[in-house]
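pinned: reference chain
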Amino acid sequence: MDTSLVKAEIDLNALEQNIRELRKITAANARFMAVVKADAYGHGVLKVAQKALESGADCLGVARLHEAEGLRRAGIDAPILIFGFIFPEHCTLLSDLDVTATVYNRESAQLLDAQARKKGVKLRVHLKIDTGMGRVGMVVPPGSGSFYSLDASIRDVKTILKLNAVELEGMYTHFAKADDTDRTYTLSQIDIFSSFIRELKKENIHIPLCHAANSAAIMNFPESHFDMVRAGISIYGFFPAGEMSCPAVSLKPAMALKTIVTFTKKVPKGFKVSYGSTYEAEKETIIASTPIGYADGYSRLLSSRGHMLVKGEKAPIAGRVCMDQTLIDVGHIPGVRPGDEVVVMGRQGNQEITADDIAQQTGTINYEIVSGLTSRVQRVYSGSPGF
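pinned: its C-alpha cells
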C-alpha cells in the first residue's frame, strides 16, 4: 500500500531516453557529461547518476565536494568534475576520492598545488575561463585593446602547467545566453574560447579536454561541443527556457509531483480560507485539503493563482499556500473524496501542469521548480538501475 503523502515520481527510463536523444545531436568525438548537482536537480542523485552512466554518460558533474564524496561512497567510480570552489585544505580528500577540481585562475591553482605538495598528493584540475558569463574564472580578452591581456592569460596557463602537484587536465567556459533567441552573444563567447585554444596551440600548449556546451548549446550551437558537452536540465526532460524548442530532440519530463486529498469541506458563499483570509468563496463550493506546502518546496507564490489536477480537472488553489498544506477549490469536480490522487506537476487524464507552467506563475524558471523540492518529498522510482 502506498502511504506517501507527497511524492515525486521519477521515471528513469525517461532520463535514459533524454540522454540518448541528446547524444544523437552531440558531436561524435565529444564526451557526454551528465550534470547531477543539487541532488540531480531534485530528482535524487544516486539513482540518476547510475542511470545516466548506464545510458551513455561518460562522466558526472557536481557543484560541491560533498556531492562528489556522496557519489564515491555509494560506489560510483566514473570521472567526476567539481565545478565549485575547493578549499586547498581539502586536497587530500580530493585525491582520496579521485575526483577533478576546478581552479579559477593562476593563484587558486598555485594555492591548491602548495597544499597538495605539502600533503604529498597529486590532483587533476580544469581551468575555468570567463568568456562573458561574468562569474568566476580567468577572464580571456576578446581581442587587442582589451582591458585584460591575452599574453598574461597565456603566461598564467603556462605557470599552471609547470606546477608539480596539479595536472591541468581540462579547460572550460560557461555560456550566459545560449537559450536566447539572439545568438550574437553566445557566438561571441564561442569565438573567444576557440581563439584562446588556438593561441595556446601556437605556444605548443594542448589542453586535453576543452568544453563549453550546456544543455541549450548542445541543441543550438554544435560548434560549441569541443571535446565534451555538459547536459544538465535537458537530461531531466526540460528545455532550458520555456520558449525554447529543438525539433531534433524529443525530451520527456522525468518527474511528476503528486499528493492526495486529505479532507473535504462544503462551504457557503463568503467563506474565508487559509492564513490572512485572503480567499473568499464567491459561491457555495467544496474546499479540499492537500498535504503539500512551501516546506516541501511548493512555492507560496502560488497562493490563489496556481492549480492542481483532480480527476483530470484543474482545481484552483484557494488562499495562501501553508507550510504543510494547500487548499484547492473542487466544487466544480464531482465526487472528490479523501484519498483521491492530486497531481501537482505532471499529467492526469487530458490535462497537464508542467514545471514551466508553475515557473511562469511564480516568475522563475523550471530549474528552480524541480531542484527546490525538499528532502521530505519522497522520491519514488520506475526504471530503476537497482541501487
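why pinned: The mean pLDDT is 95. The chain is about 30% helix and 25% strand.
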